[in-house]
Sequence to fold (421 residues):
Amino acid sequence: MKPSAFANSPAALGAPGPSGTLPEPLESEIRRIYSRSPVYGRRFPLHPQALQWSCYREIPALSKKEIVERGHQAFFEDYAEVERGLADRRFEYENTSGTTQAPMTIIMEDGWWAAQTTRAYRASPILAEFADRPHRKCVLAPVGCSSNLCPYEDHPFPHRYFDGTVYLNLSSDPFAFSEAEWDRIVVELQATQPEILEGEPVYLSLLARAAARRHVSVPSIRAVILTYGKASLQHSRRIAEAFPAPQVDLYGSTEAGYLFVGEAFRDNSRAIDGNAFIELVPWRPGAAGVHQIHVTTRGREAMPLLRYHTGDIVESAPGGFRILGRESGLYFRPDGSLVSVADVDAALPADFACWHYSLTQTAESRWDFHYVADRGADRRPVEAALSRLLGSGVRVNAFRRKSIAPAASGKFALLKPLARA
Fold:
């Protein structure tokens, strides 16, 4: 039986077992997950013999919908122990909606998030220097983030400083921020003098606009981390104008942790081997090198994930991987060819600039391009370029907006095709 393909390095995956069995590190992790979370044995019992690849592929993929429907309690033999752990802070929780648009509660053992973040930093040539030494960081996270992991409720500045990290946003929507609120954020950024600036790309782009309007620079910043959502090259350029530092694409999810890290827009993202085994699953016929990913977390005590279908799509590249984003945020032309945010960026005229955009399909051959910019662009070349990109007979209408609101999750979809049955 042919082995499944993984994004991990061969050293992390381990040598193939005898007679077509799984590599020892992968099988050991699967057995540990079964022993820790009873939900897996109820879904698909395992035999005690060494696992063949055929058996591995019979383990049903886990979806976000299934986690929501079963409830986080199903992952624990005795949930009273979790409740005691939350009370004495051995466990922590996070609520996330993701693509399900329904609350999903994630239970984490204390220290797991920090440890997997450190491993992610070590896997990045840009971030490695910060992994094992104290450093200052400012974070501008999506407003949908809610728990003790993102403690930015309406507290004064000193009380949002945790272990060198300042959470800049309060409970308001960044797109509804008054100028006085941007004043506060920019002042806190200057006061902190961070070495790392981290945030959702759209939010960081608007922060760059706020800093530029106030003629503020923050020379202490040595790295910018784009995370929480898919970045456009437009965001990257606007951020770089205000904060000229190397940019890192750090990709993952609340429930699975950080999965890939690389230089932004260099197509060299690599799997973070210490955090997860990342299986590459062929996505669609004719889309060679484009994969769904199934994630098996490593070393998790609470709610470990096995063959977890994240809904993210990656593409193999000569230097690593290009993260294409969510399945729902990709468009297929009538001829079956793929359009991603990277293709939209490449199609936009060279002199076009904006703080944020959203390309939304409104009918089979009609799209609206909404963008946030301080000055309107000539619509005709923008509309013509995007029409050519999307296919013959497609019409695109461009509109400048004051803002583009996020989804209920606090995240943004830059490319929004019509939902397909």
